[in-house]
Amino acid sequence: MVSHETEPDYFIGASVALRDDQYLFFYGRISGFYQINKRWSSVTGYGIQGITYEDSLLSEREERLTHTVSQQIRYSFTPNTTGRAEYRLKATEFDSIDYDSMSHFALAGVDHRFSETTTGTVVAGAEFRDYDRNGRDSTSPHVEAALSHRLSDRTSFRWVARASLEDNEIFGFNERYSYRTGVTVNHAITDKLRAMAGASYVFSEFEGDVFDSINEDTIALQTGLAYRVVENVDLRLSYYYTTNASDDENRVSLGATATL
């Protein structure tokens, strides 16, 4: 996925919660699946994520690149329930400021199919992060959850939540721990035209360094239309509204997405 934005996008959780400047966000992931036997399987994954800003000062403080390698061992308890044990290694490199870090994750989770139309996932564990700056390290709980439900042949609903340590791109704070939750609804109006609406809430705790520790609440709303031009290309028209302690913002965007 590649996204060029002016405002922060709370549905990807990549930028700061305040209006900064135009930025380019990109994300990619590849994984390989191996069926060991009837019940046991293995999934190996690699992901890359980055963000760059046009403003030179923001680029120095917030530009970063993250690589994540993951390994899952999965066990099928029943045809509808699969357990997993997972290890992740994540390395984040900032362009200029000394906030580079290396994280190790120890996680366990369950994927369950409640019905033909509803599936859910819960993953929980811990992140062990080492910072290059001053040799700091921290241990934090890491929780992910998701629920997907198909309301009809044309309408689907998805809820996601995450509590985790996040990359702290704001100068003057040691780190940020965030609680994120959001829902999205997608509806196919026709075979080519789709509508989407979503809402998300983010609560972040910033640990003080140069500045005192602070907390921040943010609510974001989004709605839009997507039109399928060709098989893998969509034109998108979207409206966003966000509110937090600093201000309220409205934004309209027009763009295109391609799936390869």
What report would you give on this structure?
A hairpin with a 3-residue loop joins strand 13 and strand 14. It is built from 1 helix and 14 strands. The chain has a single domain, classed as Beta Barrel (Porin), CATH 2.40.160. The longest helix has 7 residues. It starts with a strand and ends with a strand. The chain is globular, with a radius of gyration of 19 Å. The chain has 260 residues and is mainly β.
Chain-averaged pLDDT: 85
CATH class: Mainly Beta
The SSE string, one letter per element, is EEEHEEEEEEEEEEE
Number of domains: 1
Q: Count up the helices.
A: 1
For the secondary structure, the number of strands is: 14
Could you tell me the CATH topology label.
Answer: Porin
Unreliable stretches (pLDDT < 50, length at least 5) are 3-19
Span between termini? 10 Å
Question: What does the overall shape look like?
Answer: globular
Strand content: over 45%
Helix content: under 10%
CATH structural architecture: Beta Barrel
Structural class: mainly beta
Q: How many whole angstroms does the radius of gyration measure? A: 19 Å
In terms of topology, how is this protein built?
Elements lengths: L1 E4 L17 E13 L4 E14 L2 H7 L1 E15 L2 E14 L6 E13 L4 E14 L5 E14 L4 E12 L6 E16 L4 E16 L5 E17 L2 E12 L3 E11 L2
Antiparallel strand pairs: 1-2, 2-3, 3-4, 4-5, 5-6, 6-7, 7-8, 8-9, 9-10, 10-11, 11-12, 12-13, 13-14
